[in-house]
Amino acid sequence: MLKILGKASSINVRKVLWACAELNIPFEREDWGTGFRETDTPEFLSLNPNGLVPVIKDGDFVLWESNSIIRYLVSRYGGEALYPTEPTKRARVDQWMDWQATDLNRSWSYAFLALVRKSPAHQAQDEIATSLASWTRHMRVLDRRLDATGAFVAGEPFTLADIPIGLSVNRWFSTPFEHPHLPAVSEYFDRLADRPGFATYCKNGTP
């Protein structure tokens, strides 16, 4: 059985859990990370030298990096509907997954740590404002994209890209600040409610 190492509150672990729900993959999960088993031990570092969750064990195969993991799962467990093999359609999915993991993640980092995690090291008001402005700018990019598709981020069907993007939208709405009105993003978030695992792994009260 697939084993997932990582605490369920981690946004990157929740990518994997949501993908498993979409694909009906049974799994066992172990709590690793802050507040649970430490990831800087030789045992864990032998699985992921970066000391980060999630990590999966699928038989003898070990893999880390959340986007790599969910790409593997759809390829291994018959998820072509979520991750098409046609090159241009797959590239569009990859484009938005990579954008989420790089540009969007970097934009929210300081503000999220300040406003949600209450990190003492992230309380400079000018830095918070800069982060919120960048985050908002990136979310407007997403809003325009969703307005154009009228459906999901890579096009009409739900794809693998909507898992990390959906979790990012949940984080946006869950972070306490005055949000601009982004109608296409709001409609998209409502649309995601029909997906397996959404309530449990995305809109579950965890930003």
Give your account of this protein's structure.
This protein has 207 residues and is an alpha+beta fold. It folds into two domains: 2-76, Glutaredoxin (3-Layer(aba) Sandwich); 87-198, Glutathione S-transferase Yfyf (Class Pi), Chain A, domain 2 (Up-down Bundle), CATH 1.20.1050.10. Helix content is 52%, strand content 8%. Strands 2-1-3-4 form a four-stranded mixed β-sheet, with helices on one face. The longest helix is centred in the middle third of the chain and has 29 residues, at 87-115.
How many separate domains make up the residues? 2
How far the N terminus sits from the C terminus, by CA atoms, comes to 28 Å
* Arithmetic mean pLDDT: 97
| CA-based shape | globular
Question: What helical percentage do the residues reach?
Answer: 40-55%
The unreliable regions are: none
The largest pleated sheet is described as: 4 strands, mixed
CATH architecture descriptor of the largest domain: Up-down Bundle
Query: What portion of residues belong to β-strands?
Result: 5-15%
Which CATH class of the largest domain? Mainly Alpha
Strand order of the largest sheet: 2-1-3-4
Give the helices and strands as they follow along the chain.
Answer: EHEHEEHHHHHH
Number of helices: 8
Protein name: Glutathione S-transferase
GO molecular function: transferase activity
Keywords: Transferase
Pfam families: GST_N_2
